[in-house]
């Protein structure tokens, strides 16, 4: 794949992952519909603002270049978060219709991270 193609795939997947991360604002606000879902899954309500804050901070870390030290940690944080979410959904008897979205988010996060590394390697080899 050309560098331009890698860049396009990177930004499409990164914006998708960041959008998912910024949706953590809904957890922070503790919308009643999300509180109900968490209750049905057996998750404590007090966890919602913390997880929402972590997701928003992760989204900021993958979008802003100045947070290079946190960039990779944010990717792994998203992967661990959504592996955990997938596990909770499966453990509660959910089918693919329930956890398919979390699998999609994990795949998008991995693709975003891999293309991030490819872009980083390409930029390191470019002579100015």
TrEMBL record:
It holds the Pfam family DoxX_2. It is found in: Membrane. It comes from the Bacteria. One of its GO terms (cellular component) is membrane. It is a multi-pass membrane protein. Keywords: Membrane, Transmembrane, Transmembrane helix. InterPro entries: DoxX. The chain crosses the membrane at residues 7-26, 46-67, 74-93, 99-117. Its main location: membrane. This is DoxX-like family protein. The lineage of its organism: Bacteria, Pseudomonadati, Bacteroidota, Flavobacteriia, Flavobacteriales.
């Amino acid at each position: 794949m050309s560098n331009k193609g890698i860049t396009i795939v990177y930004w499409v997947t990164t914006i998708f992952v960041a959008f998912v991360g910024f949706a953590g604002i809904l957890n922070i606000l503790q919308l009643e519909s999300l509180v109900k879902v968490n209750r049905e899954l057996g998750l404590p309500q007090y966890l919602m603002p913390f997880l929402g804050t972590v997701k928003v901070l992760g989204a900021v870390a993958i979008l802003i270049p100045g947070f290079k030290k946190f960039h990779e940690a944010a990717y792994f944080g998203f992967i661990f978060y959504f592996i955990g979410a997938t596990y909770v959904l499966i453990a509660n008897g959910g089918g693919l219709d329930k956890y398919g979205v979390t699998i999609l988010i994990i795949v998008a996060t991995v693709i975003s991270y891999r293309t991030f590394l490819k872009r980083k390697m390409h930029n390191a080899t470019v002579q100015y």
